[in-house]
Description:
With 339 residues, the chain is an alpha/beta fold. It has helices at residues 29-41, 62-74, 99-104, 117-127, 151-155, 216-219, 250-262, 287-295; strands spanning 14-17, 45-48, 78-82, 109-110, 131-133, 162-165, 170-171, 192-193, 197-198, 205-215, 239-244, 269-275, 302-306, 317-319, 322-327, 332-337. The strands form four sheets. The protein has an eight-stranded mixed beta sheet. β12 (269-275), α8 and β13 (302-306) form a beta-alpha-beta unit.
Amino acid sequence: xxxxxxxxxxxxxxxxxxxxxxxxxxxxxxxxxxxxxxxxxxxxxxxxxxxxxxxxxxxxxxxxxxxxxxxxxxxxxxxxxxxxxxxxxxxxxxxxxxxxxxxxxxxxxxxxxxxxxxxxxxxxxxxxxxxxxxxxxxxxxxxxxxxxxxxxxxxxxxxxxxxxxxxxxxxxxxxxxxxxxxxxxxxxxxxxxxxxxxxxxxxxxxxxxxxxxxxxxxxxxxxxxxxxxxxxxxxxxxxxxxxxxxxxxxxxxxxxxxxxxxxxxxxxxxxxxxxxxxxxxxxxxxxxxxxxxxxxxxxxxxxxxxxxxxxxxxxxxxxxxxxxxxxxxxxxxxxxxxx
Length: 339
């Protein structure tokens, strides 16, 4: 399967906003308005869909959410789609999305993370269209830390272009910003120090492959189904697989990763990137140990504490992009090329 990239966004293009999972509660509409205005300030026309209700854990019935997302991804006038955030049960959309129609349409950028892994990762695997993991709409107003890029930088990059990201060396130790009290907050609280960590041993890492991955708690439910089948993805190229734990304890993450490995998700991995997490350790098993127990048998480099998870800041990764990850005593970097 050939990876296809949507054309770069230009001023005047339309960006669709819909909630494939959770909508936006009334008290958080202020943050939504700020994020929409930021897109408009970049010169984009923003089209907000009808599936945005935040009174429960879903923005609308599954059939309505699937129809709206399919319509946006197949509308030639909409050049990118971004949800406000994730949620809990976007998995109910998968049998309702028209992946064939989406695959036939001119490619459209889709960005998102957390529960949106349920959509963007299968979208790339089933259609070959590259997607962005790492930012949602509500993240957009934040200033991007030095060394990282935003999803808006990626969707405006030329096809064939490359961009490098390096860890800023700081992250948020806990908690969240109160978007109800301060919907315009733009500075990330990065109050702890830390870089990448090699889990499987010592020595330098220099690995290349096509990027694919997402949230462990989400993707584990797709293991062994056509929605997470990497066997035909990008021909026989090696893969750089990234995973990150949101909130489940180390025992659950260990079981989930074992299941994904047994289902073949990591079969072509040249290296595994593991997102920094605040998910709890278990009494006799840490999150690090959970990863090693499940993925150590792969015999490939495993680099943890990468900024690709639920801990701020976030390092966006393009599903389908060619990646090169380097991690040494003096340098940590990932370069992505859109070809």
